[in-house]
Please model this.
Amino acid sequence: MDPGKLVSAEEAVTRIGDGATILVGGFGLVGAPLALIDRLVETSNARDLTVVSNNIGEPERGLGRLLRQSRIRRGISSYFTSNPEAVEAVNRGDIEATLLPQGTFAEAIRAGGAGIGGFYTPVGAGTLLAEGKEEREIDGVLHVLERPIRGDVALVYAARGDELGNLWYRRTARNFNPLMATAADLVIAEVGELLPSGGIVAEDVHTPHLYVDLIVVSP
Amino acid sequence: MDPGKLVSAEEAVTRIGDGATILVGGFGLVGAPLALIDRLVETSNARDLTVVSNNIGEPERGLGRLLRQSRIRRGISSYFTSNPEAVEAVNRGDIEATLLPQGTFAEAIRAGGAGIGGFYTPVGAGTLLAEGKEEREIDGVLHVLERPIRGDVALVYAARGDELGNLWYRRTARNFNPLMATAADLVIAEVGELLPSGGIVAEDVHTPHLYVDLIVVSP
Amino acid sequence: MTGDVKALIAERAARELRPGEVVNLGIGIPNLIPGFLGPASGVVIQTENGLLGVGPRPQPGEEDPDDIDAAKLPVTALPGAAYFDSASSFAMIRGGHVDVAVLGALQVSATGDIANWAVPGKSVLGVGGAMDLVVGARRVIVTMTATSSAGEPKIVPRCTYPLTARGAVDTFVTELAVFRVQESGLVLTEFLGGANLEDVAAATAAPYEVALTN
Amino acid sequence: MTGDVKALIAERAARELRPGEVVNLGIGIPNLIPGFLGPASGVVIQTENGLLGVGPRPQPGEEDPDDIDAAKLPVTALPGAAYFDSASSFAMIRGGHVDVAVLGALQVSATGDIANWAVPGKSVLGVGGAMDLVVGARRVIVTMTATSSAGEPKIVPRCTYPLTARGAVDTFVTELAVFRVQESGLVLTEFLGGANLEDVAAATAAPYEVALTN
Model:
């Protein structure tokens, strides 16, 4: 029905421009759209990227490759520490780091996709991570106001996708992918297996197809 | 593994006390836990209830039966209008009505279950439904601050449940049920079919079992 | 309002929808639109009670009790449909992922304000998803008769009924004309059902320009 | 810290968990706890990267690349397990649906403050789910050695390291003792590994009462 969504990884990453904010799925490398990242590293020249991802890959793997190319200007993440090279890059001042508690990070991306202007969470209130943010007591508990996160492009990975763009994630490879698929102007889904339309049980679609703009099949 | 969750509908509704706030799933009667509601009507005397439900049933059906018994003190809903008797009861002053846009209603229940202290939505800002609520401009758009909704007890319906309490909802009977299952101190799930533990594919569990306290099998 | 008038409006509104667009249809005239969309229209229908990919009405006797739309009428689901909960559905709507909302109105203003949920002096006890839809959908089309049953124009300089949202509507389709809300003001772009300038003038209380596009 | 010390702490912490409780286990000592839970413990393990019902580590060669825990180590899933996305997982945690979080700490105070994610003077670039867990879990158990590798007591009158959360911790388990944070102040309820009052006094900088429960 919508054959226009299916493209090559190389073609897909041409849609990422200089200065873009990209949301990248995965918890560590599990559920990360590795073919898309590799093509971004190898065939795109987009620079000054803001990367929103729970981790910045590992040395030489995933987003760690992009980091080595000095193409990341800013990272928004809950755990830079899993890639020592990301920590070094931040400490050298090569990339700007915004750290969020992992649940706030997830919720802020969900809010970005859901048209929520901001939300109050008790997590992080009264700590270093609330500095510069509005805080208020709600029912006697200190909360911090967090803002939604959106991207220009989201790169997500799903084990299964159908031709319409419905997605189904396998085991813990789901993680941030469904949230990120809602929160970017252009959503590129890398799928392990491409099914005909309707190949995912309608109740068990994790990401409905309206969120997905382009589909790339993993090599 | 947790046989203690399985009870009769009659036993389950004894857990609803006078003055309780109850969250009741369903869009109209579709996805409403009708056996639980019927037992609440027929075997419980709990009064002065606050009912949080998208609709207040229909005359003589679902929550409409409870309404006829004058046991509802307050309704929080997006659409009282679908039961003319609910409208009459409000107009007579018999029940207090709190009206919310349907998306705000859903999001507030989700927030109640997710530990969110409040959220800003553009929906309803500047209208009658924002009266008495805090409003602020975010990125040039007027938003209204909405508070989370929680209940003492949630009554939900799922086509399938397993012995642990994992739930799977069928077609549009899902609606508010998964949200309500997260947002009450005691969650009672009426299930159409009871499966052994693991009878729902792990990726396709809609409500993980930790949310469910009691399971009742539909007659 | 006769069935002919409703059909006229629905047919014209259907032509506003483009292949691939995700559309939410309100109760009343908008619910007639699917009858005017060809099978190859490519329009995808979302219903806010939790289904993307609404198909035709089922044959009598083939209704599935769990498959309804927001009007609580039986529906079918097309291959590739997806079901989701109400928070997810309104996240979709509020988040701008539904391309078009088509819904009725009691009043609309020349600047796209809409009042469609409450009448002054009556208790306001039903809003449903109307506010979410007009705020969240990328394009909002109002389908309505030009005047109320009392003969009052519904297109007014300023809504006197309680607002659903301000500046939210892009297009009005009545039995007389199509109007576009533009930066410069309201523009009549097309006559319908053989109406002329005089007919529209008599049924419209707000100022508008005329710039026919066909 | 020797393996014996870690095992001692993990074993004692395991006995804090009750059948039916949903527990999230942090990296390090907490990750040893499953080894001390019998198969009939009834404890359900949640990992914040999206799995409720974590089972034993897989046999070598039987790892599934999509099945990991928050420490990024391979896990299995038990029958009746459920997977979910990260927003749902932290909704579960923040919303108070996880009964117990067990995690390590750099410092804790007599009032239950905890510092476990940042060292002063170093860049703070990793927080993960620690803040969400200590705020959201109904009961928070800290497992840690009594003193730092430099020999400094970790139980202090007031945390000098950046806080993870204030007043969040209920129980500390070290290799020397079990402490409960109560309204009245910190209470030592049990000695571990043959330690005595003197050992604990030397390793503890915060004031505490002693009220042995066994």
